[in-house]
Amino acid sequence: MDIKINRHTVIVFDLDDTLYNELDYLKSAYRFIAKNLEQNNWKTLYSIMFSLYRSNENVFKYLATKYNTEVTSLVEMYRNHNPDIQLFDGVLDIMNSIKAKQGKLGIITDGRVKTQSAKLKSLGIEHLFDHIVISEALGSEKPNEVNYKTIESTLSGKVYYYIADNIKKDFISPNALGWKTVGLIDNGLNIHSNAYLYPNREHMPQFFIESYKEMHIL
Fold this sequence. Notes:
Blueprint: E1 2-3, E2 9-13, H1 22-37, H2 42-54, H3 59-66, H4 71-80, H5 91-100, E3 104-109, H6 113-123, E4 131-134, H7 135-138, H8 145-154, E5 159-164, H9 172-176, E6 180-184, E7 207-209, E8 216-217
Parallel strand pairs: 1-8, 2-3, 2-5, 3-4, 5-6, 6-7
Helix pairs in contact: 1-2, 1-4
């Protein structure tokens, strides 16, 4: 997929399962929690936690009962830890190429400011973006058009792209606003796996890619 970039082009990304696998964030958080609860035997606990997750069991309820602690404190540990996550291959090259050609970069992501900001810091890319929209700070979540119009009002451009993964909610508003939309196909590890429920044009991106190696910045 070829994308021509100039100073009038705005490329906006989703974060979770678009720039990295959100499952890696979950694993990172589980390791952090396991090390806090079982310093000398944390790998055994981590193994159990991940098995519970894969079995659709309530991990935090299990831990709260076993370690006589509150679910709320476990959730806070999950949300506020410093994550160990890595970008998908090719993401950084794509972003650097966009910036080199004077294109603008943005993010629209749902979540809490502290959590999403920590992810961007761990990925080492927060400095590359001209504007970042996080739902908690804005007070609205996707697919609300407000999230996308905030980008339009902040980053002037003639062509807008949104690159994301969640068929359920990511592409409805940018499609309606005339943006170009690109869907990153689930690599088998995505948190959201129900794309088949939304086959209609309103939800679908205009283009699909399997990896960032398919994107060529011109």
